[in-house]
Specification:
This protein is of the alpha/beta class. The protein is built from eleven helices and twelve strands. The strands form two sheets. An eight-stranded mixed beta sheet has the order 6-7-8-3-9-10-12-11, with helices on both faces. Bound molecules: iron/sulfur cluster. Iron/sulfur cluster (SF4) is lined by residues 262-263, 304, 306-307, 310, 312-314, 318, 323, 336-338.
Length: 340
């Protein structure tokens, strides 16, 4: 199993830090007097990818596509229904309690809502230092305080902030506190789960710049989850587009933005403003409006999950057979019967 986990990624030929294979998460729906299982929410439906150290994978899709559930299953904050996750060749999915505690130091998460994810009754020092205490990473109070100051300065805050409470900070500052909390245990992988979605556009850019600086200073690897392709464009080396629990396209960021292959990616991209006029020639300009809403993950459509909204869907094929991811270029895979 370990040998498999250390396989080379298709994208770059580098050894994978993280490997995810056929990850599935179905949430049971219970009903009736006996609270029996009466259905399943198909949140994640067979997600596979590899991520080399030092790279950023952007994961994009509309609300309910399973991107956040995928992130939480990787960390086992939610138990996956099936599938495998390996980190540095070690199985995360099969890890026992003590192995999982050790893995929790290597893999951290930053949540979307910095207002909800910081305990309002704790000082910044206590919030950032919680993991230092749990993992016994500092021996004396002076060492603890020095580490908190170092972490605050790393994220662009100062020693003055350590005795304050979360309500005294702006949204962007609170997200910096969240980043400092994640960095406290010196992780290798950080999952940024809609980490900038709740912030104003100018603040989003500042936080993304900070994350990029930290990546080059500390050699971090990111999974950057967002519902908007424009948010992940600059930070991602590769981008995976998800629809109803499945990856429908994955490619190097440049390839995905200039030559998207999946009709869903094309539709998402057509809604993204293009600031660089040189790209306008390469990227489709006409806005593609998708009909209807994303179907319920309780009863996902048969065959290709996207067929109910796809302008290119073929009856008798797309509604019957689920397409698998196929290579359409180097490190570029798409799940569509009409491509590849
Ligand atoms: Fe559209 Fe069919 Fe391709 Fe699915 S498989 S994206 S429905 S053309």
């Amino acid at each position: 199993m370990n040998g498999d986990a250390r396989s080379l990624t298709q994208s770059t030929g580098k050894t994978a830090l993280l490997k995810v294979q056929d990850l599935v998460k179905h949430f049971p729906i219970r009903g009736g007097l006996l609270s029996r299982t009466v259905g399943q929410v198909h949140a994640v439906d067979g997600v596979s990818f590899e991520l080399p150290a030092g790279e950023t994978l952007g994961v994009v899709g509309e609300s309910g596509c399973g991107k956040s559930t995928t992130g939480r299953c990787i960390l086992r904050l939610i138990e996956p229904t099936s599938g495998q996750v390996w980190f540095e060749g070690k199985s995360v999915t099969d890890a026992g309690k003590s192995e999982l505690r050790a893995l929790a130091r290597d893999m951290q998460i930053i949540f979307q809502d910095p207002f909800a994810s910081l305990n309002p009754r704790m000082t910044v020092s206590a919030i950032i230092g919680e993991a230092l205490t749990i993992h016994k990473l500092t021996k004396t109070r002076a060492e603890y305080d020095a580490r908190i100051v170092e972490l605050l300065e790393t994220v662009g805050l100062s020693a003055d902030h350590m005795r304050r409470y979360p309500h005294e900070f702006s949204g962007g500052q609170r997200q910096r506190i969240g980043i400092a909390r994640a960095l406290a245990v010196k992780p290798k992988l950080i999952i940024c789960d809609e980490a900038v979605s709740a912030l104003d556009v100018s603040i989003q850019a500042q936080v993304i710049n900070l994350l990029e600086d930290l990546q080059s200073q500390l050699g971090l690897t990111y999974i950057f989850i967002a519902h908007d392709l424009s948010v992940v464009e600059h930070i991602s080396d590769r981008v995976a587009v998800m629809y109803l629990g499945r990856i429908v396209e994955i490619a190097a960021a440049k390839d995905l933005y200039t030559t998207p292959q999946h009709p869903y990616t094309e539709a998402l991209l057509s809604a993204v403003p293009i600031p660089d006029p040189r790209l306008k020639r390469e990227r489709q300009q006409k806005r593609i409006l998708l009909q209807g809403d994303v179907p319920s993950p309780i009863h996902p459509p048969s065959g290709c999950h996207f067929h109910t909204r796809c302008p290119m869907a073929r009856k008798g094929l797309c509604d019957v057979q689920a397409p698998v991811l196929k290579a359409v270029g180097e490190g570029h895979q798409v799940a569509c019967h009409l491509r590849g």
